[in-house]
Automatic annotation (TrEMBL):
Function: Catalyzes the removal of a penultimate prolyl residue from the N-termini of peptides.
Cofactor: Mn(2+)
UniProtKB keywords: Aminopeptidase, Hydrolase, Manganese, Metal-binding, Metalloprotease, Protease
Protein's name in the database: Xaa-Pro aminopeptidase
Record-listed E.C. numbers: 3.4.11.9
Family to which this protein belongs: Belongs to the peptidase M24B family.
Length: 500
């Protein structure tokens, strides 16, 4: 492949262009216009170029040629924008904003995490940016605007490299760009001319995005945009309802990223089970280290490492107690690859060997999980809500066999959460997506039944104080499920064999 190829699987660009990948715009992907759309940098070697995120030319150990973010090509991002535009009315626009940098205190900031919808459509992984996808008046084309922070040597010395407006065109394939500091004047005419506006920035100001400041800023700079947006309020519709349908069905590349995260995370779990742990925090640190060294970018969320009765707290994240023989430890953690997450929970005995009661309750949960995973196929014609009801019936039957009183609503106290949720770029992906609709091929979900037994006389003595949850990430396929996290062992005999 020619070294200038950045966005296509094969390069047709003349070899006289410079070694840096000069990528093409969305229009060029569909309708080549060589004379007006080819752009190039000054005579700078690729190794001397720096951007606000890894690219193949600067980080070939992280991205393959053609990829804009790990595992996802620039072409796929362009196709996502085209698909969104195809579902908008003529002359409508969609507006999205990047996430803000969040601060713990003063100048101490949290790790940056991009807004998922913005990332899904752009692949751009910096703060203070706005994307606008506008459908043409005749409905045959669309324009991708990407407004970003301009290059600034002094600011970059303190806060890190920025990609800048030129890269917005050359690398991220925007048709139009501009300095984010001029967003009010840049965006006002685009909004003014739009027939409809699809955005979640007005209805969800809690996001506190860089863009949303202009909705409340009374300065002259922002006043024009605020007035235009107010005048268009009757033609403003939520964007997430449109995007959820696209994001909910994963591409081959997305599934591959999630499988990579699941494989690395699962192997980290299995290695952790081989060791004897004395502290929750040590186990948490080990898993985070293993996720990263096995190929994940980071942990996908704050882990739960809960020994003994702590396992009955669904979102226990203190992770500061001791682990004692005779107890079990419940771990809910996972890694992230290229922005895509995996979600795993395992429960195992601290000593490495289950007691008879622990084994019985554990198998009750495992039997339920196996049954529900087997139904994660499109031809089973079930929804997540229906799977949850199936899990409830199976758990009830299992508990009866163990001597529990399951009359009335007894199970609600022992299994207080839903069986599963959608996963993808977010741990709880596509917020607002109904769990009542039938599962479709290429949806990715978690299956996580659990039992949490209070330490009271209302329950059989051998099981009091136990908390067990078993969770896997699963990709729905037409005829059989694809378990993305199968490397994390979960059979009793396998768990015990790791230590013995």
């Amino acid at each position: 492949m020619h070294p200038c190829a950045h966005t296509l699987n094969k390069c047709t660009r003349p070899p006289t262009f410079l070694p840096f990948a000069v990528s093409i715009t969305r229009r060029l992907l569909l309708q080549p216009r060589w004379s007006t759309l080819l752009r190039r940098y000054a005579s700078v070697s690729a190794v001397e170029l720096r951007f606000g995120q890894p690219l193949h030319e600067t980080h070939p150990h992280l991205l393959k040629a053609g990829e804009l973010t790990p595992g996802i090509t620039a072409l796929e991002y362009a196709q996502r924008r085209s698909k969104l535009a195809a579902n908008l009315p003529k002359n409508a626009i969609a507006i999205l904003a990047a996430s803000e940098i969040k601060y713990r205190s003063g100048a101490v900031f949290h790790e940056f995490h991009q807004d998922s919808n913005f990332f899904y459509l752009t692949g751009f992984n910096e703060p203070e940016a706005v994307a606008v996808i506008g459908k043409s008046i005749d409905g045959d084309d669309h324009t991708f605007h990407l407004f970003v922070r301009e290059k600034d040597a002094k600011a970059e010395q303190w806060d890190g490299v920025r990609s800048g407006t030129r890269a917005a065109l050359d690398v991220f394939n925007a048709d139009e760009t501009g300095d984010i500091n001029q967003i009010s004047s840049l965006l006002a005419p685009i909004v003014q001319e739009a027939s409809k506006i699809y955005t979640d920035l007005i209805s969800e100001p809690k996001n506190k995005s860089f863009f949303s400041r202009f909705l409340y800023d009374q300065s002259p700079k922002a006043e024009g945009l605020a007035k235009v947006l107010k005048s268009k309020s009757s033609n403003t519709l939520p964007l997430k309802d449109v995007l959820n349908g696209f994001r909910n069905l994963k591409s081959d590349a997305e599934i591959a990223n999630m499988r990579k995260a699941g494989q690395a995370s699962g192997r980290a779990y299995t290695d952790a089970m081989r060791r004897a742990w004395k502290k929750e925090k040590d186990l948490a640190a080990y898993l985070d280290y293993q996720f990263r060294t096995r190929g994940c970018d980071c942990s996908a969320y704050i882990p739960v490492v809960a020994g003994g009765q702590n396992a009955s707290i669904i979102h226990y994240t203190q992770n500061d107690h001791l682990l004692k023989d005779g107890q079990m430890v419940l771990v809910d953690a996972g890694g992230e690859c290229g922005g895509y997450i995996t979600d795993i929970t395992r429960t195992w005995p601290v000593s490495g060997t289950f007691t008879p009661a622990q084994k019985d309750l554990y198998n009750a949960v495992l039997t339920t999980q196996r049954q529900c995973i087997s139904l994660c196929r499109a031809n089973a014609n079930v929804s997540l809500d229906e799977l949850h009801n199936i899990a409830g019936t199976t758990l009830t039957d299992q508990l009866k066999q163990l001597g529990f009183d399951t009359s009335g609503n007894a199970l609600d106290a022992l299994f207080p959460h839903h069986l599963g949720h959608y996963i993808g770029l977010d741990v709880h992906d596509t917020p607002g997506q109904s769990r009542k609709t039938k599962l479709q091929s290429r949806q990715c979900v978690t299956i996580e039944p659990g039992l949490y037994i209070p330490n009271t006389e209302a329950y059989p003595a051998p099981f009091r104080g136990m908390g067990i949850r078993i969770e896997d990430s699963v990709c729905v396929q037409e005829e059989h499920p694809l378990v993305l996290t199968t490397e994390a062992v979960k059979e009793v005999v396998d768990i015990e064999a790791l230590r013995n």
